[in-house]
Specification:
Layout lengths: L14 H5 L7 E13 L3 E8 L2 E8 L15 E10 L7 E12 L18 H6 L1 H4 L3 H23 L3 E2 L5 E2 L11 E4 L2 E5 L4 H11 L1 E9 L12 E10 L5 H21 L1 H7 L11 E3 H12 L11 H15 L3 E5 L12 E2 L2 E5 L1 E6 L2 E8 L4 H10 L8 H8 L5 E7 H9 L20
Parallel strand pairs: 3-5, 6-10, 12-13
Antiparallel strand pairs: 1-2, 1-4, 2-3, 4-5, 7-9, 8-9, 10-11, 11-18, 13-16, 14-15, 16-17, 17-18
Length: 443
């Protein structure tokens, strides 16, 4: 019988040891996938790909127990050799091979040249061969940056007293209203995929005061643009006992500042690979919706066509305006018209045509929607009635308010959009591991 204590001894040398002084001129053993082979005749450079990055190994025919002709790209191997200094190699050192154990061998050649610094192929080809394309170092680095954003979101909110929750993605009805729902049969009952965790996170404010979630949301919108996905990851939080929606904006600003510092500290390698210049989140201007429209209309001589929403071109111009006038990468647009906000958005007591809500634009693209919610039961019922909506399907949500709720608000951040803008990508599909859009259900 075996007893496990959580430890597992391996002969493989860990990355930090491999790069440390103690490893120089010593025997080391490393695992990895063969990323590329450069055969120079008597000597071949075999570049291994590991989770930490690329590592150079050198195969000298007379010193190894295997021929270079026995090796292929995409093989996974365990390599034994002597660690030596080499300033031209990644990390300033290389492994001179004495032995190779082949762990697995590919059944056929790679369908694309993943060892190139940048994949010279179309987005469609990259998405069709996604698991292979992501082996490219640049492509892979995008999702390490995305990892940092989710990690920062969690760490920052944990540090500010939030509880992480996990809400259902199959429900009886949508939280946002409207017809943009994916409908399905749930044991012969009608059901939908969740547009957002909105109802659940509001209900949990009455339990934990501050809650957050990272998870998928689904929008059955028949669009085919560079900024939309039908399934995306939403970073949501909701917080109680607020004095105003400005507290929500302040919390998001703090998260963004924390995320930028985390990226500098722990993801410098990926930032360098992708040539990313981090935005300034130290101070973010806020402007009213109606004022923002007037500002860009006047400066860029653009006629205001839609009084109740921002068109994509307007968002881009607002971003441009605040970059030119204030050198701001982000801008909060506040007090959106009530007509364009969900029923649970709190109207502005000073002018009920507008709401105590906001969007955050990052380089001219909306990445966040949030605001203060109605917390009074009677006020919530009155707004539902005023909109001609039915309460059917919302009974449990409303019951929560019937039994008392604190003033609260929250937001949702589109993770893929935030990553796209941070990396300067043109298409949100570049920053989604496996995109789902109007035409794509695979891989």
């Amino acid at each position: 019988m075996e007893i496990l204590d959580g430890r597992w001894e391996k002969e493989v040398t860990d990355w930090d040891t491999l790069l440390g002084d103690s490893a120089l001129n010593q025997t080391a053993v490393i695992d990895g996938a063969i990323h590329s082979i450069r055969n120079m005749g008597d000597v071949a450079f075999v570049i291994l790909r590991r989770r930490e990055g690329l590592f150079q190994t050198v195969l000298e025919n007379e010193k190894a127990d295997i021929s270079i002709h026995d090796l292929k790209e995409a093989m996974t191997v365990r390599v034994t050799g002597i660690v030596t200094e080499e300033e031209r190699a990644p990390h300033g050192r290389e492994l001179r091979i004495t032995g190779i154990e082949i762990l697995s061998s590919p059944a056929e050649p790679l369908p694309m040249a993943i060892d190139k610094w940048k994949l010279n192929t179309s987005l469609e080809a990259k998405l069709n061969l996604r698991p292979i394309a992501l082996r490219n170092i640049q492509e892979r680095s995008k999702f390490k940056i995305q990892e940092a954003l989710v990690r920062a979101f969690r760490d920052y909110l944990y540090a500010h007293g939030f509880t992480e929750i996990h809400t259902p993605k199959i429900g009886a009805r949508g939280a946002e209203g409207g017809a943009n729902l994916f409908k399905l049969s749930y044991f012969h009952k009608p059901a939908v995929l969740a547009q957002s965790p909105q109802f659940y996170k509001q209900m949990m404010v009455g339990v934990f005061d501050r809650v957050f979630e990272t998870g998928p949301v689904f929008r059955a919108e028949k669009h085919n643009t560079k900024r939309h996905l039908n399934e995306y990851t939403s970073l949501d939080f909701e917080m109680g006992y607020i004095d105003g929606f400005e507290e929500i904006m302040a919390m998001e600003t703090g998260f963004l500042q924390y995320a930028m510092e985390l990226l500098k500290k722990d993801y410098a390698k990926e930032l360098e690979i992708l040539k990313v210049k981090l935005p300034d989140a130290s101070r973010i201007p806020a402007v009213r919706f109606d004022e923002a429209k007037q500002l860009v209309s006047k400066k860029y001589d653009r006629k205001i066509r839609n009084l109740f929403d921002l068109e994509p071109e307007e968002e881009a111009l607002i971003g441009q305006y605040f970059k030119e006038e204030y050198n701001a990468d982000f801008v909060f647009v506040t007090h959106y018209p009530s007509k364009k906000r969900p029923f649970y958005a709190m109207d502005d007591p000073a002018d009920e045509r507008f709401t105590l809500s906001f969007d955050l634009l990052f380089h001219g693209l909306e990445i966040t929607t949030g605001g203060q919610r109605i917390h009074d039961y009677n006020a919530l019922k009155a707004k539902i009635a005023a909109r001609g909506m039915e309460e059917e399907g919302m009974e449990q949500y409303l019951d929560t308010f019937k039994h008392g709720m604190p003033p609260h608000g929250g937001l949702g951040i589109g993770l893929e959009r935030l990553t796209m803008q941070l990396l300067g990508e043109e298409n949100v599909r570049e920053t989604c591991l496996f995109p789902r859009d109007l035409n794509r259900l695979e891989p």
